[in-house]
Fold this sequence. Notes:
Strand order of the largest sheet: 2-1-4-3
Number of domains: 1
Largest sheet: 4 strands, antiparallel
Helix content: 55-70%
Radius of gyration: 17 Å
Strand content: 5-15%
Amino acid sequence: MLSNWKIGDSLIYAAAATYAISLFYPWAYVTFQGDVSGFTHRGYLVLILFAFPICAVLFRKKTGFLSLASSISAAVFLVLYSLEVTQSYRGELVSYPTAGLYIAVTAASVLVVGVLINRWTAGVNAQP
């Protein structure tokens, strides 16, 4: 099975695994709560957006528009969320993103790259 993987497939699987691992890391530091993990921030809901590209690769389908749209929306959502987490109150930083959220944003970006590579190589290698 591993010998049949292309570079796009490998990137999609690696991005999904990295994102799943990032859920266990702290995503934000809040002064009155301490570190808050990805599960507490409901980061597992974004994992649904990772499902479309994974299913396309598992069932050997071409990653279509739905896979591309879901991967881009996962990346955009996580970037916007990381910008929203940073909050200050009266000039003092109250909460800020930590390593887990940065890992999740990186995984979503790698997912987009994997889907694009998978779409490009499927178009190049298509048989008439």
